[in-house]
């Protein structure tokens, strides 16, 4: 079949890399794609939020499956739009409905969903600007540290962990009154701080059936030792030793099943990926948040471990036939190291020429914020530029393969963390 994949990041390059391995892939189009996807698929210059242009392209190119990578078009209702158009109503789409995407689009909606369906999560309350006094009074009664979350999408920056009551109160005022995160913080969720080890669990569901994909741990901070500003993710490791069989059985029983059953019970159409941010608190899972797509850079560590046909998985999601899909997972390790532009997550310069190694052993190079200049040279176009995933039978081998490849990739002011996976290695 012909497939249209929406997105332009490292996650989408990893999706494309996996999709074209399938014998059932006739032609893969990526809109808009990047300098990595152009080598294995056909990039299409269409914005992920130009729904009319996407519909017209699906029709003109006889697309048989649409795969939505990022959250923005999902939250804006791309799935509902395509289902409502006569030309595209019968085309399977991998991605939840707009209502389903509200699990990521609104923290308050997500928390209320968890409460209704008995999914373990942190205690919380939600406040608007009109309820500021009540919010400040609520903070007086809470333990520290305390977490403040902008209700809406804030590009991964809308979460604050406040260590003092004064900081929490000042931050709440900034978010609600000064619109620190724009409209995203017109509502603020005040949440209990969870302790434990954080990990990401990924679920593919067709709304009835589900498959639990490999788990991963990501590294959000820019600095080594998890210091500095939060980023979109500086690396990832899969599998992780603190997600053993006993813990994952609890995750399935206490989190995955009630979530999928809750979506069905509440008539929330959901055919796509569910990314569950979890805390392992002394062997008990607690949900930090839901995301309604695969994570980035976790995808670049998770997909290389899937041995079964990935396109068949996607087709099963889109057509509601996931129960007949047999998921096969490699026991090998996959470790992803993200290379970023100097200055990220603050301001950075674009257009730096990138040099790639001629040969790579035991690793894959996934492009994220890359493009071409007027001379056709590979250049950086975003903050997170390249994700390198090393493979190995051991974590040490996978890390060695990743870092060896990273050292062969150069551009002016390139930066990466040298401690990705080292914390897990020290636990082993």
From TrEMBL:
GO BP annotations, alphabetical order: 'de novo' IMP biosynthetic process; purine nucleobase biosynthetic process
SUPFAM superfamilies on file: Glutathione synthetase ATP-binding domain-like, PreATP-grasp domain, Rudiment single hybrid motif
Alphabetized UniProt keyword annotations: ATP-binding, Ligase, Nucleotide-binding, Purine biosynthesis
Pathway(s) per entry: Purine metabolism; IMP biosynthesis via de novo pathway; N(1)-(5-phospho-D-ribosyl)glycinamide from 5-phospho-alpha-D-ribose 1-diphosphate: step 2/2
GO molecular function annotation: ATP binding; metal ion binding; phosphoribosylamine-glycine ligase activity
PROSITE patterns, per database record: ATP_GRASP
Keyword Transmembrane helix found: no
UniProt EC number: 6.3.4.13
Cited SMART domains: GARS_A, GARS_C
Domain ATP-grasp: 111-319
Catalysed transformations (reactions): 5-phospho-beta-D-ribosylamine + glycine + ATP = N(1)-(5-phospho-beta-D-ribosyl)glycinamide + ADP + phosphate + H(+)
Family recorded in the similarity comment: Belongs to the GARS family.
Protein's UniProt name: Phosphoribosylamine--glycine ligase
UniProt source species: Algoriphagus aquimarinus
């Amino acid at each position: 079949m012909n497939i249209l994949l929406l997105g332009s990041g490292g996650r989408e390059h990893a999706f494309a890399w996996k999709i074209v391995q399938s014998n059932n892939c006739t032609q893969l189009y990526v809109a808009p794609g990047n300098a990595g996807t152009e080598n294995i698929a056909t990039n299409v210059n269409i914005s992920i939020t130009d729904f009319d242009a996407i519909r017209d392209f699906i029709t003109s190119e006889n697309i048989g499956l649409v795969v939505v990578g990022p959250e923005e078009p999902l939250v804006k209702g791309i799935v509902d739009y395509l289902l409502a158009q006569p030309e595209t109503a019968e085309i399977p789409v991998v991605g939840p409905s707009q209502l389903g995407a509200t699990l990521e689009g609104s923290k308050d909606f997500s928390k209320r969903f968890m409460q209704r369906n008995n999914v373990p999560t942190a205690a919380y309350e939600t406040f608007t600007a009109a309820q500021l006094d009540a919010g400040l009074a609520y903070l007086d009664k809470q333990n520290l540290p305390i977490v403040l979350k902008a209700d809406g999408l804030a590009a991964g920056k809308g979460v604050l962990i406040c260590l003092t009551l004064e900081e929490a109160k000042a931050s709440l005022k900034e978010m609600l009154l000064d619109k620190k995160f724009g409209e995203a913080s017109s509502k603020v969720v005040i949440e209990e701080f969870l302790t434990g080890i954080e990990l990401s669990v990924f679920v593919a569901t067709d709304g009835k059936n589900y498959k639990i994909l490999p788990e991963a741990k990501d590294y959000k901070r820019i600095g080594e030792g998890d210091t500095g500003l939060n980023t979109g993710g500086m690396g990832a490791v899969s599998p992780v030793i603190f997600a053993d069989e006993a813990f994952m059985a609890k995750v399935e029983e206490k989190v995955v099943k009630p979530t999928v059953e809750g979506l069905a019970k509440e008539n929330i159409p959901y055919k796509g990926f569910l990314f569950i941010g979890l805390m392992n608190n002394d062997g008990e899972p607690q949900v930090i948040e839901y995301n309604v797509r695969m994570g980035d850079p976790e995808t670049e560590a998770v997909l290389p471990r899937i041995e079964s046909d990935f396109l068949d998985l996607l087709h099963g999601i889109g057509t509601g036939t996931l129960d007949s899909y047999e998921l096969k997972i490699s026991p090998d390790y996959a470790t992803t190291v993200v290379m970023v532009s100097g200055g990220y997550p603050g301001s950075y310069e674009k257009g730096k020429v990138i040099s790639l190694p001629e040969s790579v052993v035991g690793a894959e190079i996934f492009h994220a914020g890359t493009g071409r200049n007027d001379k056709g040279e590979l250049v950086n176009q975003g903050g997170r530029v390249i994700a390198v995933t090393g493979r190995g039978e051991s974590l040490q081998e996978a890390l060695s393969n990743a870092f060896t490849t990273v050292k062969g990739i150069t551009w002016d002011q390139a930066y990466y963390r040298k401690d990705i996976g080292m914390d897990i290695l020290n636990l082993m």
